Amino acid sequence: MPQLNKGGKFVFGISRIREGGELFLPPQAMEEYGICREGRIYIFTGARATGGFCVTRKGLLAPSQLGHILRENPKLDTYTFPEGELTPYKGRRYGWLTVSQSGRLLLTEFLLHQLDLNIGAELLCIRSSDIAFTLGAKGPLLERAKSYSGEIPVY
Question: What does the pLDDT look like over 26-40, one tens digit per residue?
Fold first, then answer.
């Protein structure tokens, strides 16, 4: 998978939001982050410049420096907060979703609205850190991907 510019962010592919809110995560991202291990993922709103959302799982988030997110939001930690809803915490919004073994997510209309996304949106899957990857909806990296001369797989 490409780096869109020398020394730039690594891109796993593009995930398209399909009819009914169905979205598939790129296999390489799922493998690198072990996304399907727990059957559930955490999502949180992306940076203002990128939009979209970030994806991680409890086994990566809980022991990290960001583990306080779960400790200070016990309903999120135990998945007793409603699936597909976002709760605010320190400038971002957090939630959880079920993920299939094939990397399939279902984004409800309500969740799409909360994330300012629409059916048909193409999200650039970007390696962000060692605990999360980003599905970016806008910004210079997405624009660079649109003009990239190589192949970027769409899921």
Answer: 999 999 999 999 999
